[in-house]
Amino acid sequence: MGNNNDLDIVTQPELREAIDQQMRELSTRTVIFHHFVGERLGLNPTDHKCLDIIIRATNPITAGRLADETGLTTGAITGVMDRLEQAGYVKRERDPNDRRLIFINPLLDKAMAKIGPLFAPVKQAGQKLYSKYTDQELAVILDFVINCNKMTKEMTAKIRAEVADDIKTHQPEDKSDL
Hints:
CATH topology of the domain at 12-107: Arc Repressor Mutant, subunit A
Structural class: mainly alpha
Strand order of the largest sheet: 1-3-2
Number of helices: 6
């Protein structure tokens, strides 16, 4: 098995608690890492991660789809797209068949010229880390990460819905009929 860092965990509850704590630490470190990556790219973390979604999309993406994917409002996505376009990372293009549709296309040459050097060491470190585990262990890790992503997406949707409900609940009453 991969390096267990000499953890003295003997019970499943202790192991689960240790995983919870390490996942929190990983989450914090990831947010901080992407903050500084965004700074290197001249972007805030949200814009940086939206650019990542756009780059990884298998087909051109619309603002509406990006809003659905991120949970951001379409108004917020408009601001993201303005900043990404101004920075030269994306270009908006109208659908020739339906002029109402606007696709967000990454300008991959510029984006990858800046992003590639930032993530090459991360990829190398990841490959080195993966080499410590057997194929079977890597399959378990992959399953865990896939399920973490599903869980996080579900929890994000739940929190987003709660925030939307809170906003509706706390809207001032319309007094125009008075």
